[in-house]
Amino acid sequence: MKNLCLIMARSILQKNKMQTLEPNGFDVDQVFGATKRQLRRFWEKHYFQYCIFLSARVNAKDTLSKLRKEGNKIIIVTGRMLSYEKSFIGAFMRRSVKLWLWRNRLVYDEIIFYQENILKTDLCDKLNIDIMIEDKPQNVLSISKAIPVICFDASYNKCIECENIQRAYNRDEIYFAINKML
Q1: pTM recorded for the entire structure
Q2: DSSP alpha helices (H): ranges in 16-155?
């Protein structure tokens, strides 16, 4: 989903004469060097389209369904912008994520919304997670110190390599990696 967001952002921000500064950046602000104000305006204008209309990655539905049928517990841990807030906007963000999951027919047992300044590693430990699928470079590195991580390949995490990290290029590879690890 992150790559689709950047494609959408690239076309919109280039129309506004913003150039790509870091093509391998993780988020819109890193890729385009957008200010907080520009980033906020971008998301205010395009969040609904991003959240509701972008499709899940190929085979995500089938992979999650298969893993769940085989007795695996699926926990989604997301630091989606503002979703952790106890306010109307936080409730809206949580609802929009759940709507996107439902619309794409992605099954899960539990969803955890966390504030981005909290380490995802701590949440993995607290939730007794055995294997994590992650794409954000900082999270991949920190989580891999505690548990195995399947790093979903993306332009912004190509340089991440470590003993406890296995790279996957599609959902089928994720499925096979999980079964191999278990």
Answers
A1: 0.82
A2: 28-32, 36-48, 60-69, 88-103, 120-126, 137-144
